[in-house]
Write a structure and sequence with these properties.
The complex is a heterodimer of chains A (about 375) and B (about 425). With about 375 residues, chain A is mainly alpha-helical. In chain A, about 80% of the residues lie in helices and about 0% in strands. Chain A contains 15 helices and no strands. In chain B, the strands form 2 sheets. In chain B, strands 4-3-2-1-5 form a 5-stranded antiparallel sheet, with no helix packed on it. In chain B, strands 7-6-8 form a 3-stranded antiparallel sheet, with helices on one face. Classes of the chains: A mainly alpha (about 375), B alpha+beta (about 425).
């Protein structure tokens, strides 16, 4: 009578293992192949982008006169934006990395990250419909506000530290933002009143913008859009400086500000330079704000009171209607290639200086 | 004993930059608050009932009267919107204060909103629908025709209490979000377009991005090819979005789409124009660096001990990744997805080049086979903001609605980003626990 052979557990495990080994090896090979393919695809895409632009770009007669005002417009927008974004972003980064208590830092970092994520079209909308019509009547007030802001803050800071009782100062240490808010608001109100009071003078007439959609509006709104980029990168660089450096300087008698200015800022300088470069690159490529609030007139003009048309805005305006293969299409691609190259260059430079920063920190 | 005077002097040495640096934070925060406040204020303005005035003024040598909604009021004059008997947005009028004879706010003024978005102002105390319709026809000029069921909203703005006004505004904002009508406002098609686009983009970008991150982190490590690919990724992340749009236009729309049209030869161009598939592919390219960088960061947080343990127990590399690494890194994948979605939902510039249109006759997703229409142009929330703001025949209403759409977009994008930040912080805590 045949007895069904019950195989011993050991051999069954080995058999099952052997049975599945080929499937497992196949899965391993598949994964490796899939990963390799994905990597190759990406490398191809990264290469394809400039190649495609290059292949379709075309030089037509008079391309300089078509492209040059756009390049000038892009640079004008980015420069004004950076002149707003850098003081704001850098100042905020300094305070956040070196003076703010941990609670403030834990609040400000994600807040500015969220601010960075605000869609550009929302900022462009506000710039075009609300800020521009308002600013066209209040340029003088804005100029006064900007001119007075830094001296007023510095002087009142010194006065506060000299005059206010030490008890008050200890109570407000780390909460200086609350001190600055009423000051900034009062300055704004004062500048507004002064701007209205002098509205009929020659100075006000000199500052009258050509168009509501001008470099000032772009500078303010694009500057606000780029500010979080500058802030995040500069803050990371400043925060990563070893605490021993600052403590050592303070132990030798430097104030916190002296330690920052003479020691921490130079040490973190590459990181800050990278922040500026990436901020500039972001401002160059930003489309919607310049498109909506920049006026879109191709001018070779550096005045903040006139409009501009940037490469990116021009692409968004003209590319949907340009017929493939036409001269205009070729020129558009040429300008895009130019923008692509500029941003690539700025990014590569930023990456390079950040590498230097990393090496410096590794040495410390 | 009191503190030595020299020490006190030293402690009082001043830091002029301290308040300066704090002030920059203050200015930034004020600007941020101003932006949110302005958006909210304009949104309220878009939906709150507008008071209706009876105006008498001198113009063209005669005295005229008009029942009109007062849209704006300043020191120089008023901007009013009369009854729109002919066309929406056609009856705006500016009246200088000098010409104004009298202005009062009759309590029985009633605003009727018609199905096509027109608003008619009447003086009537009728409450039933049929009475209102009769009053409407009695006060209408010759040639005006409207059925009783064309009246979709009846408001007595001068009589409404604050609570009633708030209720009206809420109902209108719901109509704005869920409404489909073109003239009456309503961003539902744009919302559907945005959601379909973002879902399609996620389906396209996530597998590729995760595979790439796995290859970079688990296989290539610090080899030369990995370094090159990381550099390429960093550079791709810095390329302006509009360039991606142009790339999509050249490669997908004109290249592949045009080629498909020529190949299929069905006469009318179908794939060779902007469409939701091309836009999703473009956005997938745009968000690929975001996904790869976030996923790789998450993979880096998976403790090596887990991998080594799995390998020591006899698992292959593929099994280790599938059974151990990916489950542990799942929140990181979620973060990557949320960040990509947030980035994609907020981008407008590339979409303008590859298929987002001002008005699409049909949704990309509907009940007709094959349900998802990949070649159709679509509407997008960001594009609607742009169009409402800059190209409207009825500027005061369109601009207010543009702000409402912008607020909606802002809430969606900021909400997604906040979610990503929360998930990421959780992940960091968990990675710390695992490492202990």
């Amino acid at each position: 009578m045949p007895v069904p052979a019950s195989p011993s557990p050991a051999t069954s495990l080995a058999a099952r293992f052997a049975q599945r080994a080929s499937a497992r090896a196949r899965r391993e090979r598949w994964l490796q192949a899939g990963l390799g393919c994905a990597a190759a695809l990406l490398a191809a895409l990264a290469l394809a982008m400039p190649v495609f632009l290059l292949a379709s770009a075309r030089l037509t007669v008079g391309w300089q006169s078509a492209v040059l005002p756009l390049v000038a417009g892009s640079f004008k927008a980015a420069t004004y934006a950076l002149s707003v974004a850098v003081p704001l972003g850098l100042g905020a980064a300094i305070w956040c990395a070196r003076f703010a208590p941990p609670g403030w830092r834990a609040l400000l970092k994600p807040l500015f990250e969220l601010f960075e994520a605000v869609p550009a079209v929302v900022l462009g909308l506000i710039a075009a419909l609300l800020l521009a019509p308002w600013l066209v009547r209040h340029v003088l007030a804005l100029a006064l506000f900007i001119a007075a802001l830094a001296p007023a803050l510095a002087v009142s800071g010194v006065l506060w530290q000299r005059i206010a009782p030490l008890r008050w100062q200890r109570a407000t240490a780390g909460q200086e933002v609350w001190l600055s808010l009423p000051l900034v608001a009062a300055l704004g109100a004062g500048a507004l009143a002064a701007g209205d009071a002098f509205a009929d003078t020659a100075l006000a007439a000199l500052l009258q913008p050509v168009t509501p959609w001008n470099g000032l509006v772009i500078g303010l709104m694009l500057g606000l859009a780029v500010m979080p980029t500058v802030f995040t990168l500069a803050e990371d660089a400043l925060f990563a400086v070893p605490a021993e450096l600052a403590l050592g300087a303070q132990a030798l008698g430097a104030t916190r500000w002296q330690a920052l200015w003479r020691l921490l800022l130079p040490v973190a300088a590459p990181g800050i330079a990278a922040a500026l470069l990436l901020g500039f690159s972001r401002a160059l490529g930003e489309t919607m704000i310049v498109l909506m609030a920049g006026g879109n007139t191709p001018l070779l003009d550096v005045s903040p009171l006139s409009g501009m048309r940037s490469i990116a805005a021009n692409l968004a305006l003209e590319a949907p209607e340009a017929a493939p293969g036409s001269g205009r299409y070729g020129l558009l691609l040429l300008s895009a290639l130019l923008l692509f190259g500029l941003c690539l260059l700025l990014n590569a430079a930023a990456e390079h200086v950040r590498g230097r920063l990393r090496r410096r920190f590794a040495g410390l | 004993m009191s503190t030595p005077p020299t020490l006190r002097g030293a402690a009082r040495r001043s830091d002029p930059g301290l308040l300066l640096a704090a002030g920059t934070v203050g200015v930034s925060l004020l600007a941020l608050m101003a932006i949110v406040f302005v958006l909210a204020q304009q949104t309220v303005r878009a939906f709150a009932p507008v008071p209706v005035a009876e105006l008498r003024w001198r113009g063209d040598g005669a005295e005229r009267t008009l029942l009109a909604a007062v849209v704006r009021e300043d020191a120089r004059g008023l901007i009013v919107r009369g009854s729109e008997w002919q066309r929406r947005g056609a009856d705006y009028r500016r009246i200088a204060r000098a010409d104004l004879v009298s202005l009062d706010w009759p309590g029985d003024a009633t605003t009727l909103r018609l199905r096509d978005g027109r608003e008619i102002h009447l003086r009537t105390t009728a409450t039933s629908a049929s009475d209102l319709h009769a009053a409407l026809l009695a006060q209408a000029p010759a040639g005006f025709a409207a059925g009783a069921d064309d009246v979709i909203e009846v408001v007595a703005p001068n009589r409404a209490s604050v609570l009633q006004s708030a209720g009206i505004a809420l109902a209108r904002s719901w109509h704005f979000v869920a409404g489909t009508s073109q003239t009456g406002g309503g961003v539902f098609p744009a919302l559907v377009g945005t959601v379909v686009l973002v879902l399609l983009m996620s389906v396209l970008v996530m597998p590729l991005g995760v595979l790439l991150a796995l290859w970079l982190h688990e296989y290539a490590g610090t080899s030369r090819s990995a370094r090159v690919l990381r550099a390429a990724m960093a550079n791709l992340a810095g390329v302006p979005a509009v360039i991606y749009g142009l790339f999509g236009l050249v490669l997908f729309v004109n290249g592949i789409g045009g080629g498909l049209d020529a190949l299929l030869a069905h006469g009318t161009p179908r794939w060779g124009g902007g469409g939701v598939l091309w836009a999703a592919l473009t956005l997938a390219l745009l968000t690929l660096p975001v996904v790869v960088i976030a996923t790789e960061e998450g993979l880096g947080r998976v403790p090596d001990a887990l991998r080594q343990g799995a390998l020591a127990l006899g698992a292959t590399r593929a099994e280790t990744i599938w059974r151990v690494v990916l489950p542990v890194a799942r929140p990181a994948l979620l973060t990557a997805l949320i960040l990509a979605v947030a980035r994609a939902a907020g981008e407008v510039a590339p979409l303008m080049l590859v298929g987002a249109v001002k008005y699409a006759p049909a949704l990309p997703l509907d009940g007709e086979f094959p349900f998802l229409h990949l070649s159709r142009p679509f509407m997008h929330l960001g594009q609607s903001v742009y169009d409402l703001a800059l190209a409207g025949g009825d500027a005061p209403r369109d601009m207010a609605q543009a702000h409402a759409a912008a607020l909606l977009l802002l809430v969606v994008v900021v909400g997604l980003n906040a979610a990503a930040i929360v998930v990421r912080n959780r992940l960091r805590e968990r990675a710390r626990e695992l490492a202990v």
